[in-house]
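S1.2 Input.
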Amino acid sequence: GKKISLEKVQVDTCPKCGGKMKYYNKPVKWVSYVDPSGKKKQRITERSPAIECRRNQKHWWEVDPAEEC
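S1.3 Output.
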């Protein structure tokens, strides 16, 4: 059930603001819960490969691993 996928991504500048970009597995879904000590916490349930601007976190795009350049 486990597989390894290799991706080669050339990260350039952000098309919206010109900031530097980073590539990582961005959390896209999570569930909120209260732990036994009463603190509110979140558990990540799904991640997606994404490119995100370091200058503005609202500038991000999901990477399709099946897409060929």
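S1.4 Remarks. The beta strands are 21-34, 40-53, 60-62.
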